[in-house]
C-alpha cells in the first residue's frame, strides 16, 4: 500500500496562507531564523519519567493564568471592615478586607470559587511535580557533570516554590492561614540573637501587625514569580545547551540523543500534555474542595484552629517541631528556643545544604570528572539510592508527626504514642530503610548479572535421560544485554600512600584516607557487570550445553524475557 503526500503549500489552506506567510517572512526573516535557531532542531528523548518536569512547568502556567484572574478582585489589606456579603453566616462579623474580598471571590464572583480551587490545586501539583522530578534526577544520577549548576537551579526553584506556596496560602487571612503565619513567626523568633529583629523587619512590628498581607501579596504576585520565571528560563536554556539526558539503550551513547525534534513532534506532544495537566487541575478544582476559608472564619490572634495542618509540602517541618523535646535555655540574657530552632530552621537549612552539596560530594568520593549524558539505573548506585530512600523515609516519619493529632483522633490512637514513635522512628527507620534498600539494589545487580550469564528462565521443565530435571534457559536479546551492561565498571580501590619514598608523611594524607574510606563505603557490596569474556563464554554455554538445550524454534512454548507467554503459530 502506497500513501501519497501533498506538499502543504499545494493544499487549499496552504495556498491561502502563502501570501501572509511570505509577507511576514520578507519583513521578519522567520524562516531563516528558524533554521538557525538550535532549539527548533533540538532533539528530545522519549520516556514517561521526563514528563514529570513538564507537569511542573504546565502547572506553573496554570498558576499564572488563574492568579491573574484572582488579582482583579483580591484586596491585600488588613484594614478592618464589617462583612455584609453573600455568605450570610458571617454577616456582621469584623474581618480584614483580605478575608472579605476572598469571600466575595468565592461566593460573589462568577467562577471565582472554581478559580480559587484550581489555583490552589495547581500550586499543590506544582510543588509535587518538582519534588518527584528532583527525585528522578537524583536516583538516576542526572545531576552529574555537566549538570551540577542545573541541579542547583532546580533546588532554587523548589525553595522558591515552597515560599511562594506559603505566601499564597497565607493571603486570605483566615484562621487557618493566620495560624500558619503564627507558626512561621515562631520560627523566625527562634533564630538566636537576630530573631526578634527579623520579626520586626518582616512583619513591620510585632506579630501580626498590619503590613504582612500586603508584603506577602507583592512577593506572591511579583517578586517570587519573576524569580521563578528567570530560573525556569535558565533551567530550560541549560537543558537545551547541554542536551537532554536519556536512558541507555541500543544506539544511545554519551555523544548523541535519540528522540524527536522540537518541531513539530515534541512541540505537539508537549502542547497536548499541557491541556491534559490543565484539564486535570480544572477537574480537581471543580470536584474536590480545598481550603474552605468560610469554615474557619477570620483570623484572630487569640484563637487557634483545631486540627490545623499546613499544605502537604510543609508538613515535615510541622511534624519535626511537634515532636521536638522542650529544649530551651537562657544564655547571655537571651532565651535560646532550641525546641523550635533545631527542628524548624536548622532542619531545613541542613536539608537544602545537603541536597545542594551532594553532586560535588559524590564527585569527590568517586573521583569521576567525566561528562554523563546517559542515565544510571538506581540499582547500579546502591548507596546513592539507599540515601535517597532513607531521606524519603525520614520525611514520611516527620509527616506523620505533622498530623499526629488527626491520626490520633481518626484511628483512636494515643497522641503520646505517636509522638514517641516519630521521635524514635526518624532516627531508626531511615537506617533500616538504608540497609534494606542497599541490599535490594545489590540483589537486583546480581540478578542482572545472572540473567546475562545464564539467560532467563523460560518456564519449561525438561527431564534428562538420567531422570534429573532442569529448567530451560534462553539467552537475553542483545538489546536487553546492552541495557543491563551500559553502566561503568566498578573502580579499583587502592589504599592511599601515607608516606613517600623517604618515609615522610605524604601531603594531604588525612584527606586521602578520608576519601578512601568514603569510596570504600560507597562501593561496598556493589556487584560489577560481567566482562566481555564472561558474556561470550555464557553465549557458548547457552548455545550448546549438555542438559541445557535452548532452541527457540517454532515449537518453543515458554515465556519471553519479560515473563509474558509467547504466541506461536
TrEMBL record:
Metal-binding in keyword set: yes
PROSITE patterns, alphabetized: CYTB_CTER, CYTB_NTER
Record carries keyword Mitochondrion: no
One annotated GO biological process: respiratory electron transport chain
Membrane protein topology class: Multi-pass membrane protein
Membrane-spanning intervals of the chain: 55-74, 118-139, 151-171, 217-241, 262-288, 340-361, 381-401, 413-436
Compositionally biased intervals (Basic and acidic residues): 539-548
Keywords: Cell membrane, Electron transport, Heme, Iron, Membrane, Metal-binding, Respiratory chain, Translocase, Transmembrane, Transmembrane helix, Transport
GO molecular function: metal ion binding; oxidoreductase activity; quinol-cytochrome-c reductase activity
Reaction catalysed by this enzyme: a quinol + 2 Fe(III)-[cytochrome c](out) = a quinone + 2 Fe(II)-[cytochrome c](out) + 2 H(+)(out)
Entry EC number(s): 7.1.1.8
Disordered: region residues: 539-569
Residue ranges occupied by any Cytochrome b/b6 N-terminal region profile domain in the UniProt entry: 20-248
Ranges where the Cytochrome b/b6 C-terminal region profile domain occurs: 249-443
Co-factor requirement: heme
Main location: membrane
Subcellular locations according to the entry: Cell membrane
GO cellular component, one term: plasma membrane
InterPro entries: Cyt_b/b6_C, Cyt_b/b6_N, Cytb/b6-like_sf, Di-haem_cyt_TM
Protein name: Cytochrome bc1 complex cytochrome b subunit
Upper classification of the organism: Bacteria, Bacillati, Actinomycetota, Actinomycetes, Propionibacteriales
Amino acid at each position: 500500500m502506497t500513501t501519497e503526500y501533498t506538499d502543504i503549500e499545494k493544499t487549499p489552506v496552504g495556498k491561502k496562507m502563502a501570501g501572509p506567510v511570505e509577507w511576514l517572512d520578507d519583513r521578519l526573516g522567520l524562516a531563516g531564523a528558524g533554521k538557525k535557531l538550535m532549539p527548533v532542531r533540538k532533539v528530545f528523548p522519549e520516556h514517561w519519567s521526563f514528563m514529570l518536569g513538564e507537569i511542573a512547568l504546565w502547572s506553573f502556567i496554570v498558576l499564572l493564568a488563574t492568579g491573574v484572574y484572582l488579582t482583579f478582585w483580591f484586596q491585600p489589606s488588613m484594614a478592618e471592615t464589617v462583612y455584609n456579603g453573600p455568605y450570610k453566616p458571617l454577616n456582621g462579623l469584623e474581618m480584614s478586607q483580605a478575608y472579605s474580598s476572598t469571600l466575595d471571590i468565592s461566593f460573589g464572583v462568577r467562577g471565582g470559587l472554581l478559580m480559587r480551587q484550581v489555583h490552589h490545586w495547581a500550586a499543590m501539583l506544582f510543588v509535587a511535580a518538582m519534588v518527584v522530578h528532583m527525585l528522578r534526577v537524583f536516583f538516576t544520577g542526572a545531576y552529574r557533570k555537566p549538570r551540577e549548576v542545573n541541579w542547583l537551579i532546580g533546588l532554587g526553584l523548589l525553595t522558591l516554590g515552597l515560599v511562594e506556596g506559603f505566601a499564597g496560602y497565607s493571603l486570605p487571612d483566615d484562621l487557618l492561614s493566620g495560624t500558619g503565619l503564627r507558626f512561621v513567626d515562631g520560627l523566625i523568633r527562634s533564630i538566636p540573637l537576630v530573631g526578634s529583629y527579623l520579626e520586626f523587619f518582616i512583619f513591620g512590628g510585632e506579630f501580626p501587625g498590619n503590613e504582612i498581607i500586603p508584603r506577602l501579596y507583592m512577593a506572591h504576585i511579583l517578586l517570587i514569580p519573576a524569580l521563578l520565571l528567570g530560573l525556569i528560563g535558565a533551567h530550560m536554556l541549560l537543558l537545551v545547551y547541554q542536551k537532554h539526558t536519556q536512558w541507555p539503550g541500543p544506539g544511545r551513547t554519551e555523544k548523541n540523543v535519540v528522540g524527536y525534534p522540537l518541531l513539530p513532534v515534541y512541540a505537539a506532544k508537549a502542547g497536548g500534555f499541557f491541556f491534559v495537566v490543565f484539564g486535570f487541575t480544572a477537574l480537581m478544582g471543580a470536584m474536590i474542595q480545598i481550603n474552605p476559608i468560610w469554615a474557619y472564619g477570620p483570623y484572630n490572634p487569640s484563637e487557634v484552629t483545631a486540627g490545623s495542618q499546613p499544605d502537604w509540602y510543609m508538613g515535615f517541618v510541622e511534624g519535626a517541631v511537634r515532636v521536638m523535646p522542650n529544649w530551651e535555655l537562657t544564655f547571655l540574657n537571651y532565651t535560646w528556643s532550641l525546641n523550635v530552632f533545631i527542628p524548624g530552621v536548622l532542619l531545613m537549612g541542613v536539608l537544602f545544604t545537603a541536597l545542594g552539596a551532594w553532586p560535588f560530594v559524590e564527585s569527590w568520593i568517586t573521583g569521576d570528572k567525566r561528562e554523563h549524558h546517559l542515565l544510571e539505573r538506581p540499582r547500579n548506585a546502591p548507596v546513592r539510592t539507599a540515601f535517597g530512600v532513607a531521606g524519603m523515609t525520614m520525611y514520611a516519619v516527620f509527616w506523620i508527626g505533622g498530623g499526629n493529632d488527626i491520626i490520633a483522633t481518626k484511628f483512636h490512637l494515643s497522641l503520646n504514642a505517636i509522638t514517641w514513635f516519630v521521635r524514635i522512628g526518624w532516627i531508626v527507620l531511615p537506617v533500616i530503610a538504608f540497609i534494606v534498600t542497599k541490599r535490594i539494589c545489590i540483589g537486583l545487580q546480581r540478578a542482572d548479572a545472572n540473567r546475562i550469564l545464564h539467560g532467563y528462565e523460560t518456564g519449561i521443565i525438561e527431564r534428562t535421560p538420567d531422570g534429573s530435571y532442569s529448567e530451560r534457559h534462553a539467552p537475553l536479546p542483545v538489546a536487553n544485554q546492552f541495557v543491563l551492561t551500559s553502566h561503568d565498571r566498578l573502580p579499583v580501590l587502592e589504599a592511599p600512600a601515607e608516606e613517600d619514598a623517604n618515609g615522610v608523611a605524604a601531603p594531604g594524607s588525612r584527606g586521602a584516607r578520608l576519601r578512601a574510606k568514603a569510596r570504600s563505603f560507597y562501593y561496598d557490596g556493589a556487584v560489577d557487570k560481567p566482562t566481555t569474556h564472561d558474556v561470550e563464554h555464557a553465549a557458548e554455554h547457552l548455545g550448546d550445553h549438555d542438559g541445557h538445550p535452548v532452541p527457540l524454534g517454532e515449537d518453543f512454548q515458554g515465556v519471553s524475557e519479560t515473563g509474558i507467554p509467547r504466541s506461536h503459530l
